[in-house]
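During the reporting period the student researcher (J.K.) took over the structure-prediction task from the postdoctoral fellow and processed the backlog of single-chain submissions. One of the processed entries is reproduced below for the supervisory committee.
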Amino acid sequence: MAITDFDLVLFGGGGDLASRKLIPALYSMHRSKGIPAGARILAVGRHERTNDEFRESVNQSARPHIPAESITGELWEGFLARFDYVSMDANTPETYRALAKSLRDDANLTRVFYLATPPSLFATICNNLAASGLATPNSRVVLEKPLGRDLKSAKQINAEVGRVFNETQIFRIDHYLGKEAVQNMLALRFGNILFEPLWRREWISDVQITIAEEIGVGNRMGYYENSGALRDMLQNHLLQLLCIVAMEPPLTVTPDAVRDEKLKVLRSLKRFTPTTLAQNVVRGQYRAGHVGGVAVPSYRNEPGADPDSRTETFVAVKAEIDTWRWAGVPFYLRTGKRMADQLAEIVVRFKSLPHSIFTQPASSFQPNSLVIRLQPDEGLHLNLMAKTPGDGMRLKPVDLELDFRESFKTPRMEAYQRLLMDVLRGQLTLFMRSDELEAAWEWVEPILEFWEQDENAPIPYTAGTWGPAAASALIGRDGLQWREEALPEV
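J.K. obtained the following structure tokens:
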């Protein structure tokens, strides 16, 4: 579907997210001629700047995040010319007049308001847009996470934004859903007959979903200290990946068909009790260590940190889904900062061989597994047992791999580019619906409440490791272990 003419308004247009992700994604669209010639980008900020001054700031802040080989002088100058800057205070209704003057008055024009701002501003901005007559039927609003701190605040955001925009105009963004490998999960499951008969409790032993980061909190301490790993990663990214793995086949790939099935998964997650929480949830906080051979400080010694902070930088959870397909299959979720490697992957491990016809005992055979690597290299790996060359019948594990870069020579689209294109097309499939968001918060809220009452601090773990030993014990009680060996380089 072609993208029609639009005005894109970036609230927080001079911020870190815009510089690192949004503007590079827009440039890639501009470079590939994927957006109309007349489309405009309006950056909103509180500081007084001319258009030229803002364009120069884009040149300084966003250009380093774009591959140098993709930038040519004429192309880059044409991209910068799309930007206009509007100085205004998002809290002050009167200043929206300046924005109104900058927007084109065309009933057929798509208007996108991208709120790369703290969630405390979502309702204010939306109400001011409505009061200024800017929230037209052709308008769309994009909400960046965090979408609330808990169930109550998430419901409040949904209600307040929903008073201005209807559900088909609201795009709650989770950039993990824009990753090529995540969408390939849909293709893998529902575009092939091979795995679907095995995609159930009779054949699958467990599922592991890991998002590990080597980096610390960087310049996000103000946000992270009030968020932590659970709100920042598990409530959104990890649960969305779980939904893609566990959902039933939707009737079509239309937005509500897909999101209906994801909602069923979230509502089927077994609810925690105080007893099961203590057994099935681990929270940790990194201490000083070495990452990539470089000494790094503890979280509590990072700039701006509370020396007595109880904020978790690591969380591991054993989740269960009470459905006919998944009953009894554990889903292990973990995420953390300052870990041993930078990776995001889903591991679907199949059950062990019931009997060996070879001289090797069945216990020596590695269970088959399917590894979906999301980053740093996107691809699929299928682990099988195969005969070693030579005399005799000795089996060993082998890895069948699919590297998306090698299989498809066309350049891969970055997550934010894909999602921005879907916003501009009005395609909602890869965005969360309000009931989906609330169901996710409903499931994690008992964890937050338990931690608030728990006098124990997060378990310390050394930076550059795979997290607290308690996370290994969590999965070890089921006779399993986290997959931590490196995949072959692709």
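The committee noted the following: Confidence is low (pLDDT under 50) at residues 486-490.
J.K. will present the remaining backlog at the next meeting.
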